[in-house]
Prior knowledge:
Elements: E1 2-4, E2 7-12, E3 15-21, H1 52-59, H2 63-73, H3 82-95, H4 98-110, H5 116-132, H6 147-153, H7 161-172
Antiparallel strand pairs: 1-2, 2-3
Helix pairs in contact: 1-3, 2-4, 4-5
Amino acid sequence: xxxxxxxIKIFRGRQILIEYLLKPEDVxxxxxxxxxxxxxxxxxxxxxxxxxxxxxxxxxxxxxxxxFLDFIQSKEGAxxxxxQFVKNLYSLSLRIAPGVFQKTIERAHxxxxxxxxxxxxxxxxxxxVDVQDxxxxxxxxxxxxxxxxxxxxxxxxPDLFSWAKFASKNEGSDDGSGSENR
Length: 182
């Protein structure tokens, strides 16, 4: 490859493979194509580097998350990669129940937590506590009046004596050597 003023030529041995014009130095972030080649039919997708959309969706949850996001934006929050933090927080909000998410963010704000890993641990701990608070299921005796229950009640009792006989035969054939017959 040899760069001439205003153009680049790429060689293999002494044969020119391709040659194309250079853009002026003030042109940046544009794709450059050789003159004889057609441009690609589709451009690369715009990669979203900001977290504005995710922040708006999070603020729609209520004031509790708005206060926490304001804390994160302040100097007191001390988040280095704020956009990534907001995206991870939005992802967490999609993975857990809204009630647990609200309690998690309220606790994280109260203790001024600015680590997404710590917030996830708080959510896991709150979910464990919520599991213990499940209401008891009240059982009624009306299942005894169902036809399916009454049909099952009249089935024959299992014959457990045949198993006892089988077990006693196996115990009697044990010679005490420690090896089992299989």
